[in-house]
Amino acid sequence: MQIKGIGVCGGMAIAPIHYVESPCPADINEHTDREPAQLKARLDELTAALQQEFLSRAALLRQREQTQDAEMLEMQAVMLCDVTFQNGVCRYLDQGYSLAASITRSSNDQQQGILETEDPYLMERVADVADMASRLVYACWEIPYPDLSQLDHPVVVAAEDLQPSMLVSAPEEFIQGLVLEHGSRTSHIAILAAGRELPTLVGCEDLSALHASFRAGKPELVCLDADQGTLSFAMTDQELQQARQKLEAWQQERQALFVYRDQICATADGERVYLYGNIMEAAAAERVREYGGDGVGLFRTEFLYMNRSTLPSEEEQFAHYRAAVRKMGGKDVTIRTMDIGADKQTPALDLGREENPFLGFRAIRVCLAKPDILRTQLRAILRASAFGPVKILFPMISRMSELDQALAILEDCKAQLRQEGKSFDESIRIGIMVEIPSVAILASQFIQKVDFFSIGSNDLTQYTLAVDRMNEKIDYLYDGLDPAVLTLIRASVRAADQAGGGKTCGLCGELGSDPKAVPILLGLGLRHLSVNPSALLQTKRLISQLHRSDLERAVAQLNL
Ligand code: PEP
Ligand code: MG
Q: Atom 8 (ligand 1): residue with closest C-alpha?
């Protein structure tokens, strides 16, 4: 049997499921007849014990050099003893609320206070405050907190949802993978898991069968394949054996791929191909480097805007972009202005309901309607360009006037920064995504105004073929190798080549790491591909095995 989900980071794991129950919330209206003084004394005891627990776990993590994780626990220890939080609990106790209700109420007040500061750094701490309070509530109920810290054997962790702190508290060597019903690629837990290269599935179908078997004390042995986005369970002996063989082959192949890390990316007959990585957050630039990428070909910055109720400030964005630039140590970082809208929404921007969100208010359309958002972002990107090679990429351009407006705003931002004496790269290169057919059709006109094209094959395919990229019912029609899509790709490549002056056309959609597509894309003249970092090594290997004759043959077969 199989469950499908969204693979956050590739990889495979076979291990028994360890299902983590969601912590159950306290009833905030629960009252008690017990003396407040008695409950306050109990609060002191519980606080001291939990603080001790946080600190000893942090010390253990420090020994293992997991400094960041240790800092999070140390911060929770501080938040636990915070006077405002503790006084709040006492105030509710005086009003007759139970200890669990008082803790929860005071923590809710604190979370609300943090949200009102609109300080992006503090706001990220809301989940940690909630987690700290539920641990205290469990201690007060004298029930063990659903925790991973006691794990002593390898497991695939499954849950409806999981607090980041819970993953942090788990012994890393025993967590083989993660499967969550909720969550998106952008949830903190997914980012944390990807940072640890844990095979992970989020947004899974119903996990209740796995939950039931775990509860019954018979945890299912599962095979998690994050590349395929599947979780297999109730496997026959034969299926299990096949899964084990696949895992072994995957591990060997992964190891063997590292020989490509420091090799220049080129075809077998010496044609240089530039292979970059796609990232969603600065930290992931580390992986691009680790896997020998030529740079960051696509920084999807919209992820900095998601899961939050305020927009990121210029300083916050600048810090992220500069971090990515520094990590890449002199290699290009292509930063795309935010592509919020359609399937990527944020509470920070209420875009309203739309009949056809993929054809609606999205990306550059939002930015031009709310130019302050674009200005803030462009200033941050420009400032980061003082620290290393940066390129700016505008998404979802569909007509020339949009590009003209975006370029005018960019010039304004440059002028402002000059006036303020803030440095940036005066010759910063500017590009647009080719993901709407109108741009590919008029490629020779668009290329006159920019330095490069980056083909967004994910969207170019959906808009060329009128096939919703999110709709599994018509998935069979979604084909990036359709001759119509390839004709548009070829037109874009030709336009850039013919324009001369070092103008380039690359591709940064998922097609760039599809082994069937790579020979065709190279055959069409593409020499810049940007792929998920986990696909860098295998794509480099594939390219190194191709000859010019393979590429010519691949394209000749298309009859374009
Ligand atoms: C694309 O459309 O191919 C692309 C790279 O952009 P996104 O997937 O973020 O829409
Ligand atoms: Mg796109």
A: 458
458 lines ligand 1 (CB under 6 A): yes
Determine the distance separating the centroid of ligand 2 and the alpha carbon of 511, expressed in angstroms.
12
Residue 62 Cα, ligand 1 centroid: separation in angstroms? 39
Q: How many CA atoms lie within 13 A of 160 on its CB side?
A: 8
Dihedral angle of Cα 292, 293, 295, 296, to the nearest 10 degrees: -130
Mean pLDDT of all residues in 176-188: 77
Q: How far is CA 544 from CA 134, 220, 293, in A?
A: 53, 41, 14
What is the C-alpha to C-alpha distance for residues 504 and 501, in angstroms, rounded to an integer?
9
Q: Does the annotation count 508 as an active-site position?
A: yes
The domain made up of 261-556 is a member of CATH 2.30.30.240:
no
Q: How far is the CA of 435 from the centre of ligand 2 (A)?
A: 6
What's the CATH class of domain 2-22+147-256? alpha beta
HEC-encoded secondary structure of 365-405: HHHHHCHHHHHHHHHHHHHHHHHCCEEEEECCCCCHHHHHH
What number does the ligand 1 atom closest to the CA of 459 have?
2
Q: What is the pTM of this model?
A: 0.72
pLDDT of residue 440: 98
- Ligand 2 is a single-atom ion; what residues have CB below 5 A from it? 435, 456, 459
Whole-number pLDDT of residue 84? 94
Separation of CA 460 and ligand 2 centre (Å) = 8
Q: 550 is written with which tokens?
A: 């393979």
Alpha-helical regions (H) of 118-207: 120-123, 126-141, 164-169, 188-195
Q: Indicate which residue of 188, 320, 505, 547 is catalytic.
A: 188
Q: Whose CA is nearest to atom 4 of ligand 1?
A: 456
Query: Could you tell me if the CB of 300 is within 6 A of ligand 1?
Result: yes
Q: Say yes or no: CB of residue 456 within 6 Å of ligand 1.
A: yes
Query: Active site residue: 9, 204, 413, 508, which one?
Result: 508
With a 6 Å cutoff on the Cβ, whether 435 touches ligand 1 is yes
Burial of 16 (0-12, 13-18, 19+ CB in 10 A): middle
Q: Return the CATH superfamily for domain 36-141.
A: PtsI, HPr-binding domain (1.10.274.10)
Span 330-380, pLDDT tens digits: 999 999 999 998 878 777 888 888 989 899 999 999 999 999 999 999 999
Q: Per-domain residue ranges for the chain?
A: 2-22+147-256, 36-141, 261-556
Residue 126 pLDDT level (bands cut at 50, 70, 90): confident
Read off the pLDDT of residues 242-267 as tens digits, 9 standing for 90 and up. Answer: 999 999 998 998 899 999 999 999 99
Ligand 1 center to residue 456 CA distance, Å? 5
Burial class, 82, CB count within 10 angstroms (exposed 0-12 / middle 13-18 / buried 19+): middle
Average pLDDT over residues 228-235: 93
DSSP state of 505: E
